[in-house]
From TrEMBL:
Annotated coiled-coil segments of the chain: none
Superkingdom per UniProt: Eukaryota
Pfam families: Kelch_1
Signal peptide per UniProt: none
Organism encoding this protein: Aristolochia fimbriata (White veined hardy Dutchman's pipe vine)
Protein name: Uncharacterized protein
Cited InterPro entries: Kelch-typ_b-propeller, Kelch_1
Length: 371
């Protein structure tokens, strides 16, 4: 009897559909339902049908107050709002904000139940810190612990959602704030920021290697490793995200869009421009945004915010623009860049803009939940 034919290997899994994902970002400004009160709220974006939805306000923030410098991350079906500084905006529009306190509070929003709950507080109140998720746990490192101090801290901690508890981690080798957290190759990276050596007295401004460095926390060994020149800029990064095993960035905290997407080469310790990612800018004219939705290049339309979110091999850029000559209207636009596009392929896609009443300001970068 002849041998039976070998079974065919199973087909590779299909890439996840964008319908399985939602992107969430934190906004501050005027609430959609009121033009007289300021607060923070969460908005979600559905890439499947290019639709926006207002989740609702972040609880625990009084009227005329805003929360800044906090972290927003996603674990399973939940969004976590971690730390931050509470500010008072005053009774008049445009009033200068006053820093009131640094918070240790952690609030959780379940996408499944649509309910908020309060979690165990941070061990150290902090704002403008690095925060990322690794193996289902939330890591927080660096930041500032006082509104009266201009220095960062080196302390770090980890949150265990199943136990609703924070645990201490070894301190970093540097003190830093305005740093960015990202998980890559099984390690927690704290990149850039305003950093000093851990033994600095804080009275002398230096431009040592720490100012353009990163630190990597090996979760299995429980140790930090200094990564000199990983960022190479004295200006802190805006966002760094991991897509398909690579790190991507589009700018810094002063200019979140520098005209192209960059990827990190870990072997050479350098950031390179990604082929096909160059775009002069993300601008739309008020006429095209309000009628046909077709994008045009128009420097007169000012971008208000820009944040990016990874889904599959796509980098989604969620942007808001102020319409020229319009004081009470703005437009939201989503651009998607395919990191897997081959040379010569069109890698960019632009969704139809959504015109909105009022104007919103980004307070927390995107996080993504797979439904």
């Amino acid at each position: 009897m002849g041998s039976l034919p070998s079974p065919s290997p199973p087909p590779p899994p299909s890439p996840p559909s964008s319908a399985e994902y939602r992107m969430y970002m934190a906004i501050c400004g005027r609430t959609p339902s009121s033009h007289t009160k300021f607060c923070n709220w969460i908005e979600s974006y559905n890439p499947w049908d290019n639709s926006w939805n207002c989740v609702g306000p972040i609880p625990g923030i009084p009227e005329r107050h805003v929360l800044r410098g906090f972290a927003m991350v996603a674990v399973a079906d939940s969004i976590y709002i971690v730390g931050g500084r509470l500010c008072y905006r005053g009774e008049e529009d445009g009033a200068e904000e006053v820093n009131l306190a640094v918070l240790a509070t952690v609030r959780r929003y379940s996408v499944t139940t649509r309910a908020w709950s309060e979690c165990a507080a941070l061990g150290t109140p902090r704002f403008d810190f690095a925060c990322t998720v690794c193996d289902g746990k939330i890591y927080a490192a660096g930041g500032q612990i006082s509104v009266a101090s201009g220095r960062g801290v080196s302390s770090a901690e980890v949150y265990y959602p199943a136990e609703d508890a924070w645990g201490p981690l070894p301190g970093m080798r540097t003190v830093r704030y305005k740093c960015v957290g990202v998980t890559w190759e099984g390690k927690v990276y704290v990149v850039g920021g305003f950093a000093e050596g851990g033994d600095s007295d804080g009275r002398t401004v230096t431009f040592a290697a720490e100012r353009s460095s990163a630190e990597a926390f090996d979760v299995s060994r429980g140790e930090w490793e200094l990564m000199p020149r990983m960022w190479r800029l004295d200006v802190p990064p805006n966002q760094i995200v991991a897509v398909d095993g690579k790190l991507y960035s589009s700018g810094d905290c002063l200019n979140p869009w520098k005209g192209h997407v960059e990827s990190y080469d870990g072997k050479l310790n350098i950031w390179n421009s990604v082929d096909g990612s160059r775009r002069r800018s993300f601008f739309f004219s008020s006429s095209s945004a309000s009628s046909s939705g077709s994008p045009v290049t128009n420097e007169a339309t000012q971008r208000i915010y820009l944040t990016m979110a990874p889904v599959g091999t796509q980098l989604y850029f969620l942007a808001g623009y102020r319409l020229e000559g319009e004081d009470h209207r703005s437009v939201s636009v989503v651009h998607a860049f395919d990191t897997s596009a081959g040379q010569g392929e069109e890698a960019w896609m632009c969704m139809e803009p959504t015109e909105e009443e009022g104007e919103k300001e980004l307070c927390g970068h995107c996080c993504v939940i797979q439904l």
